[in-house]
Amino acid sequence: MMTATLAVPSLIVDRVIRPGDRRYPQLRSTYTSVATPAFIVLARDSADVAAALEFANTNRLAVSVRSGGHGLSGRSSNNGGVVIDLSEMHRVDVVDPDTRLVRVEAGARWADVAATLGPKNLAISSGDHGNVGVGGLATGGGIGWLARTYGLTIDHVRAVDVVLPDGTAVHADANQHAEVFWAVRGAGGGVGIILAFEIEAMTLGDVGVARFVYDVDPDGRLLHDWSTALADAPRALTTAGFLTSHQPTASLVLTAVVASSDPETVQTALAPLHTGKLRPVHAEAHIAPYTNLISTADLHGNSGQMPAVTSSAMFTDLTPDGARALMDVVLDRRRGIVQLRSLGGAVNDIAEGANAYAHRSHQVLATGTLFQRGRQSELAELWRPVVDHASGAYVNFESGIDPAVFHRAYPGATGDRVLKAWRDYDPDAVLRPIRV
């Protein structure tokens, strides 16, 4: 189809960016891939989004939704289709200071959210990088620096404004459009385009921040010891880190965040990370604003600068065999990158089935990455032994779109309900993020 000859609806004609526009290079791509959409619609409201959807559907054009463009899958852009860009919808407002209810538009980035809430001693746990867009993270889960204290971002979403695939705009919460509300919290990309979230924030001032470096044996005993220590650690403590290889061993570089500014509380919470079997070769700790972790200094455009493929694995218990499988990835000649995040605590307070995130008994999230696009099958081969010891996947850290990803991310009854919601609200699979 000759897209250059297509008539754009008058409502959005002045909102459309095409190849050749000076803004096109800054909006065409994602963090992991360079794309060439035929039309980018800078939406301002639900009417713009509905018009863009109708235009795409009428002309049988692929649709992508872009809030920040940081998603590892690259699905927030496409080649030859329509990108509905929400970046101009970026307001962050405290709706009710007494209940800590915050309204966040989907095109905001989490650094801006933290910067707005920080002076009010409020925070929303929201991933680990300030450049991530609100819309993508807050529909997939939201595993962040405060996860074991706060839980997932989606666990505190109280309502959403959504444009359904047929163009209908709805306000969904526990009492109205309840099935949409259930699905958008964990599987939102398949039922509609979320324009804004009402989220209950937590009270938070400064936090304790520590960095530890450990030598890791090839069998991964250190990883098993870390996961065991975190399972019993105070829920004020959340950790995330990455493994670096220096054959034939490796190092774990770990960042620990304690949701408190009280030095004694911080010291007590960090104790499991430098006592017993865990003996770091380097350790440092300080008190800092939460905004230092989700910083506006991280804001940047996304232009395909980090080509990569990623997969994930979630563990109810990181067994010695599972830890050894992770080390095999790190020490493999293909130089896979492994990141680790601690779960449990408040994440597991929510009953399974309360929303579309099913993994409420898990303690560890691991992600494996190979740099350069087009290596998905190679990563799958490298990562398969890890998956064999795991029992779930986190959709925000999956670049693959095959049915196996769906069934690991949405197992059992959760998967059945997600798939029914996707088919009910998007029968033509206009927005469906995974092939299933």
Blueprint of the fold:
Blueprint (H helix, E strand, L loop, with lengths): L15 E2 L6 H4 L11 E4 L3 H13 L4 E4 L15 E4 L6 E5 L4 E5 L4 H8 L4 E2 L10 H7 L6 H4 L6 E7 L5 E5 L4 H10 L5 E8 L1 E2 L2 E11 L4 H11 L5 E10 L2 E10 L4 H8 L11 E8 L18 E8 L4 H12 L5 E6 L21 E8 L4 H13 L14 H7 L2 H14 L11
Parallel strand pairs: 2-4, 3-4
Antiparallel strand pairs: 1-2, 5-6, 6-10, 7-11, 8-9, 8-10, 12-14, 12-15, 13-14, 13-17, 16-18, 17-18
Account of the protein in words:
- β5 and β6 form a beta hairpin.
- By secondary structure, the chain is α+β, with helices and mostly antiparallel strands.
- The protein is globular.
- It is 25% helix and 25% strand.
- It has twelve helices and 18 strands.
- The two termini are 27 Å apart.
- The model has no long low-confidence stretch (mean pLDDT 96).
- The strands form four sheets. It has a seven-stranded antiparallel β-sheet. A five-stranded antiparallel β-sheet has the order 5-6-10-8-9.
- It has helices at residues 24-27, 46-58, 110-117, 134-140, 147-150, 178-187, 221-231, 263-270, 320-331, 376-388, 403-409, 412-425, and strands spanning 16-17, 39-42, 63-66, 82-85, 92-96, 101-105, 122-123, 157-163, 169-173, 193-200, 202-203, 206-216, 237-246, 249-258, 282-289, 308-315, 337-342, 364-371.
Entry summary:
The chain is an alpha+beta fold and 436 residues long. It is built from twelve helices and 18 strands. Helix 7 (221-231) crosses helix 9 and helix 9 (320-331) runs antiparallel to helix 10 (376-388).
Task: Count up the helices.
Answer: 12
Element pattern in H and E: EHEHEEEEHEHHEEHEEEHEEHEEHEEHHH
Our Rg estimate from Cα atoms comes to 21 Å
The residue-averaged pLDDT reads: 96
End-to-end CA span: 27 Å
The beta-strand count equals: 18
Estimated structural class: alpha+beta
Unreliable segments of 5+ consecutive residues: none
Q: How much helix is in the residues? A: 25-40%
| Major sheet size, sense and barrel closure | 7 strands, antiparallel
Shape: globular
Measured by DSSP, the beta-strand proportion falls in: 25-35%
Strand order, biggest sheet?
15-12-14-13-17-18-16
